[in-house]
Amino acid sequence: MATESQASAAAGRTHIRNIGLMLGGDLAQPVLDADSLLLDGGTIARIGRAADMPAPGPGDRVIDAQGCAVCPGLIDNHVHTVAGDWTPRQNQLGWIESTMHGGVTTIISAGEAHYPGRPRDPVGVKALAIAAQRSFAAFRPGGVKVIAGAPVPEEGLTEDDFREMAAAGVTVVGELGLGKVKDGPTGRLMLGWARRYGMTTMTHTGGPSIPGSGLIGADVVLEADADVVAHVNGGPTALPDAEILRICRDGTRALEIVHNGNLRTGLMVLEWARGNDALGRVTMGTDGPAGSGVQPLGILRTITHLASLGRVAPELVFCLATGNNARVRRLHDRGLIAVGRAADLVFLDKAEGSAGATVLEAVAEGNIPGIGMVMIDGAIRTHRSRNTPPAHRVPEVVAG
Ligand SMILES: [Zn+2]
């Protein structure tokens, strides 16, 4: 299997020129007035116009973007990792590396819920979380940054257990409701402990996803008050519209729209956020692997669905899966095209044969873009994607 377990940042400087459109990932400034980037190793060092950029030195890498758009590496706020690049849900190998071909450079576990024989006792829950965190920190399929080891809240966990997991490097908690704890008061207590030790948290929302998980309605979601209302549009079964809108109105936390949910209610939440100046609360995930499969293009498809069917401009929808996810998960080292952030970059163009003059017009028409290159920490992880339709233009490495 052609996955690479060790992922190191690029060395030296990389100059990227002829960028046709720079999507910054920030709702306040979704398009940057720039056509060039300078990378120092794995970090964005300078952003500007060609005339303002330093000339390449000997040994520097130079990439001609050929007019492609560049956006920050996409972040999938909701996946269910298990072990390495294998998912037992569909018994498939290589799904994470394949997802990188969909422009995703960071994935965040919502719980290792599909782990065969998943432990439910406190010591087992802790052991699995720490083992998963460790394993994915050392093994990055396709170079993807995998934030895993997300303990699912189970009966008997104590504040000390959360303190111990946080001290061991666990930074996320899996969906409340996938385990035995399904009530608001216990959920609120446990998620409060997790928050005290710096972890971010999420609640399952809607009908049960797999046998053993439960129906989690607005009352529990609002009382538990997790950082992320996971799949507010259902995972896959959505709550009634009135309950979803109550979560939007009465809560303050992130509203996650997922690929493997209910598209109609996802659009309803997007429209609510647009009308209430709350796009900053909307995050995006796939909730894969799932019963509906593995979706390497799930984030690109969700961006395209929302931008073509909703009343939000495509350049803003890109921010939901980049800057918003990074902010909500406190990943302040990525998610934006900004100086000092990781050079996790996706080069895009409209797909061959697509309607629309530009990549944004193509997305607004409902056609997913083609990817011509993906970089993680400044290192090229793929040239033309094997999964997207072919991009009209692709970048070219002209030196280095
Ligand atoms: Zn769920």
Describe the structure.
- The protein has 400 residues and is α/β, with parallel strands linked by helices.
- The protein has two domains: 124 residues, Urease, subunit C, domain 1, CATH 2.30.40.10; 255 residues, Metal-dependent hydrolases (TIM Barrel, Alpha-Beta Barrel), CATH 3.20.20.
- It is built from ten helices and 21 strands.
- The protein has a six-stranded mixed beta sheet.
- Strand 11, helix 2 and strand 12 form a beta-alpha-beta unit.
- Helix 2 packs parallel to helix 3, helix 3 packs parallel to helix 4 and helix 8 packs across helix 9.
- The protein is globular, with a radius of gyration of 20 Å.
- The model has no long low-confidence stretch (mean pLDDT 96).
- The structure holds zinc ion.
Summarize the structure.
The chain has helices at about 95-100, 120-140, 160-165, 185-195, 220-225, 240-250, 265-275, 300-310, 315-330, 360-365, and strands spanning about 15, 20-25, 30, 35-40, 45-50, 60-65, 70, 75-80, 85, 90-95, 105-110, 145, 170-175, 200-205, 230, 255-260, 280-285, 345-350, 370-375, 380, 395-400. The protein is α/β, with parallel strands linked by helices and about 400 residues long.
Ordered list of secondary-structure elements with their pairings:
Elements: E1 13-17, E2 21-26, E3 29-32, E4 36-40, E5 43-48, E6 61-64, E7 69-72, E8 74-79, E9 86-87, E10 92-93, H1 95-100, E11 104-109, H2 122-138, E12 145-147, H3 159-167, E13 172-176, H4 184-196, E14 200-203, H5 218-224, E15 228-229, H6 241-250, E16 254-258, H7 263-275, E17 282-285, H8 298-309, H9 314-328, E18 345-349, H10 359-364, E19 370-376, E20 379-382, E21 396-399
Bound molecules: zinc ion.
